[in-house]
């Protein structure tokens, strides 16, 4: 294994992980991007682990299929269309990762003719699926060390060259080690991650998913936090998300108050969200584009106010009111600020609550969100789907039921979505609600 490949392996797998642990994780990650027979635009996940790559790729694939395609039926997709949409999606993610590196791209491939010991398992132009699912067996055929010794890197200086080569290598992404090779391609393209300019606290594959890896695939930046902007913690600068993401991220952990997802991930450009549970990633999406209208003045004010409230207490010290008002381009003369302190904190507690602050400066402008709209949920694991067939679960979201007597359920997916829409109700077209695991 070359020194550069070893550096990549150590970053992804960790220097101290034992061989048994690495072999176990490696076997779970050994699969390509394979479309479901039951849902032509949905990717299948064979075992636990690679959802950290497959779910973000699925989210961007849906973005392209729903909002960049002119097809009337977005759920129908022929084999040639699957190739186009997958290649475009992989290129989109690589393009995000390359922005800091002056549009330089790097693809991880392998030396031709030395990888497949049984050619009959390769995909051909006439078959859309491998004859046998490439799970742990492929890892046993090649092995961790041998696989990484055969990796070679191809660099590209412009997007058209990248896309042309990536499409020529379509069968590579579909077969056996496709998910891992794409992961390595994103990391190699994102040079700043390898040089540690962005924070990676642990090996990328040390658990079911790593937030730095998820953020890299969703935003192009390998930061380990989900809040907006950077924060000072114990004298250290801790990096967060700096701009609105194309597809979003919500997590069940926020409903348990373990973290707070910022507006840049919670309110993306397209109504598609990767959903995180304790151990798995799925995707929630809708075609209702009004859900992600440009940030309103009220939403901007909430986001900026919360940057001065890193503990998510719902208030700030009154000494910070002037800074918040300046950040929002409000009148911030000392006399006026003192007047507002008295009005917003009549009891003299020394704090400014978020609710009264928004009501004073940004009174309710009326919601643009429709009362109800169609929604879908994707889970790539076969065993998490009815009859082990990977399909989208359809349903309806209904907004505005603040009366607890009108609540329909208390499922994990609903608790997760309530971190964005507190009064959402979900009605699914199936007997059981979607699984987040």
TrEMBL record:
> Could you tell me which residue ranges the Deubiquitinating enzyme MINDY-3/4 conserved domain spans?
9-345
A molecular-function term among this protein's GO annotations: K48-linked deubiquitinase activity
Q: What is its EC number?
A: 3.4.19.12
Q: Any stretches that span the bilayer, and where are they?
A: none
> Is Lyase given among the entry's keywords?
no
Which top-level group of life is the source organism from? Answer: Eukaryota
Q: Which SUPFAM superfamilies match?
A: EF-hand
Keyword tags? Apoptosis, Hydrolase, Nucleus, Protease, Thiol protease, Ubl conjugation pathway
Query: Major place of localization?
Result: nucleus
Q: Where in the cell is it found?
A: Nucleus
Cite the InterPro entries for this sequence.
Answer: EF-hand-dom_pair, MINDY-3/4_CD, MINY3/4
Under catalytic activity, the entry for this protein gives: Thiol-dependent hydrolysis of ester, thioester, amide, peptide and isopeptide bonds formed by the C-terminal Gly of ubiquitin (a 76-residue protein attached to proteins as an intracellular targeting signal)
Gene Ontology cellular component annotations, sorted alphabetically: nucleus
- Gene Ontology BP terms: apoptotic process; protein K48-linked deubiquitination; proteolysis
- What Pfam families does the record tag this protein with? MINDY-3_4_CD (PF13898)
Summarizing the function annotation, the protein's role is:
Hydrolase that can remove 'Lys-48'-linked conjugated ubiquitin from proteins.
Family to which this protein belongs: Belongs to the MINDY deubiquitinase family. FAM188 subfamily.
Its name, as the record gives it, is Ubiquitin carboxyl-terminal hydrolase MINDY
Q: What is the lineage of its organism?
A: Eukaryota, Metazoa, Chordata, Craniata, Vertebrata
């Amino acid at each position: 294994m070359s020194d550069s490949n070893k550096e990549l392996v150590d970053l992804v797998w960790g220097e101290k992980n034992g061989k048994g642990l690495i072999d176990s994780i490696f076997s779970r990650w050994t699969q390509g991007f394979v479309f479901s027979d039951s849902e032509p635009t949905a990717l299948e996940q064979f075992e636990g682990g690679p959802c950290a790559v497959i779910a973000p790729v699925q989210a961007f694939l849906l973005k392209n299929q729903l909002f960049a395609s002119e097809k009337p039926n977005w759920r129908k997709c022929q084999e040639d269309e699957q190739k186009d949409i997958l290649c475009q999606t992989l290129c989109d993610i690589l393009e995000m990762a390359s922005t800091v590196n002056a549009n330089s791209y790097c693809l991880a491939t392998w030396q031709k003719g030395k990888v497949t010991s049984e050619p009959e398992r390769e995909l051909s132009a006439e078959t859309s699926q491998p004859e046998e699912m490439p799970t742990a067996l492929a890892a046993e055929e090649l092995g961790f060390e041998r696989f990484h010794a055969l990796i070679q890197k191809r660099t590209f200086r412009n997007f058209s060259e990248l896309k042309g080569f990536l499409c020529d290598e379509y069968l590579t992404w579909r077969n056996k080690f496709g998910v891992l090779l794409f992961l390595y391609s994103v990391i190699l393209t994102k040079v700043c991650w390898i040089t540690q300019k962005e924070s990676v606290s642990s090996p990328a594959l040390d658990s079911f998913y790593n937030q730095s890896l998820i953020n890299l695939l969703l935003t192009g930046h390998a930061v380990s936090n989900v809040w907006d902007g950077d924060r000072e913690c114990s004298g250290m600068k801790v990096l967060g998300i700096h701009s609105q993401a194309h597809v979003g991220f919500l997590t069940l952990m926020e409903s348990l108050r373990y973290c707070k997802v910022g507006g840049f991930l919670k309110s993306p450009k397209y109504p598609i969200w990767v959903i995180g549970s304790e151990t798995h990633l799925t995707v929630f999406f809708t075609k209702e584009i009004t859900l992600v209208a440009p940030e309103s003045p009220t939403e901007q004010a909430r986001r900026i106010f919360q940057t001065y409230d890193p503990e998510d207490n719902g208030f700030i010290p009154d000494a910070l009111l002037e800074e918040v008002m300046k950040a929002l381009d409000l009148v911030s003369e000392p006399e006026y600020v003192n007047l507002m302190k008295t009005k917003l904190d009549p009891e003299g507690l020394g704090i400014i609550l978020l609710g009264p602050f928004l009501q004073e400066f940004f009174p309710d402008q009326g919601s643009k969100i429709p009362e109800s709209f169609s929604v879908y949920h994707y889970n790539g694991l076969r065993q998490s789907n009815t009859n082990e067939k990977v399909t989208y679960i359809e349903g309806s979201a209904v907004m505005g039921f603040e009366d607890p007597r009108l609540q329909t359920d208390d499922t994990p997916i609903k608790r997760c979505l309530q971190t964005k829409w507190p009064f959402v109700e979900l009605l699914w077209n199936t007997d059981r609600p979607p699984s987040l695991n």
